[in-house]
From TrEMBL:
<protein>
    <submittedName>
        <fullName>PLIN3 protein</fullName>
    </submittedName>
</protein>
<comment type="similarity">
    <text>Belongs to the perilipin family.</text>
</comment>
<dbReference type="Pfam" id="PF03036">
    <property type="entry name" value="Perilipin"/>
</dbReference>
<dbReference type="GO" id="GO:0019915">
    <property type="term" value="P:lipid storage"/>
</dbReference>
<dbReference type="GO" id="GO:0005829">
    <property type="term" value="C:cytosol"/>
</dbReference>
<keyword id="KW-0551">Lipid droplet</keyword>
<dbReference type="GO" id="GO:0010890">
    <property type="term" value="P:positive regulation of triglyceride storage"/>
</dbReference>
<dbReference type="GO" id="GO:0005811">
    <property type="term" value="C:lipid droplet"/>
</dbReference>
<dbReference type="InterPro" id="IPR004279">
    <property type="entry name" value="Perilipin"/>
</dbReference>
Amino acid sequence: VSEVPNPTLVSSACDVVATAYTSTKESHPYIKSVCDAAEKGVKSVTEATASCVQPVLAMLEPHVAAGSEFASKGLEKLGEKLPLLQKSVEQV
């Protein structure tokens, strides 16, 4: 999962979306209050889920590691075949 944002295009797109989100929140107070509430809700759900899922993740750790390695190799091959992924959103 940590490898997904590594291609420049993905990282650049995430930066563009994050900047737009932050700018929108700062420009519109009503949207800011809704976004803040949504962020708090997501954080609470994430924290609650993480504590429940932790034992399952520990049991599945070897399988997750193997899947992660496979996915990482796949992303490397994808980056080689699609050089577009190494460009920023502006360049694309």
